[in-house]
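step: validate -> pass
step: tokenize input -> pass
step: predict -> running
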Amino acid sequence: MSRVRAPYMEWAKSRPKPAIDLAGSNLAACTLDDLPGAREALDLSGESPDGYAPLVAAIAARHGVAPDRVATATGCSGANFFACAALLEPGDEVLVESPSYDPLPAAARLLGAGVRTFSRRFERGWAWDPGEVAGALTARTRMILVSNPHNPTGTLASADDLAALGALAAARGVTVLVDEVYRDTVLVDRPPPAATLGEAFVSTSSLTKAYGLASLRCGWALASPELVRRMRRVRDVVDVWAPIPSDRLSVVAFRHLDALAARARTLIASNAERVRTWLAGRGELACVPSRSTLAFPRFRDGAAAEAFPERLFAATGTAVAPGRFFGAPEHFRIAFGGPTDALDAGLASISRFLDGGAA
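step: predict -> pass
step: emit ->
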């Protein structure tokens, strides 16, 4: 068990501080001034037997589900872990998309489960192939782990895509965990939470990627009442009690979520257009269009991108995320949910580096 690692997270926490950061994937952070009433809400007291009840109610109301279908957690990663711990036993298997966000399979490995993968390919627009997914399932498969929008590519599976995956899973008695932490960054034709499409699904998310509230560590899962009950019992073992000051501030955030979403829409729309324009002007790069705040380009001539992020950083102080951490070393990830001026400076820095022939 001690050998279980999440290399991307290790790198993200230990990397040198960049002058321009296009690797960190959070939305530009909010301040207390973005949450009217936040200071008045701060208090150290509160009850949290199965999650802080006002927060559970706020999450349920936002997603149109009953409170008994909501399990709170420390961030989306905490919700992912609780769901895995509620369902997996040593010797079970999970089926994980590739490329993927590495804490997803790491959580399963930590619990003693085996990990198999199915491919999401650039040539298919990073969409999953239902036939390949079906062929990769075994008698030991308990869960399918995917992200939507997809991390690291930003591409989006539709409600029909999800429903087909859910039908396949239900027929085999398998649960589909959909990490939806970037779902609220989708500005047009956003699919509903997967958990509202059928009992085969559990959806996880947080206030981090779409609302700039990473420090609150407010995460949750939407699932069947029975799975939620099991996740709440897992929390009894892991951290027992929700952090009340954080949860109180999260309730305030939900009261103002429409305003926070409007802030995010303005930032994301502007930044996404900048990235689209920049990619269109970089003939040496190929990239499937993103629906989120991530882009995952590669070099058209097949040149290896594995060393590119390190060389870019050494020469310019600009950081992008190496694709090897997601299982696709020929790509690199650009995150564009941060301040627009930093994005502009970062894209200009990458262009100067590429134009200098140093890539």
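step: describe -> Residues 142 and 329 are 29 Å apart (CA to CA).
step: cleanup -> pass
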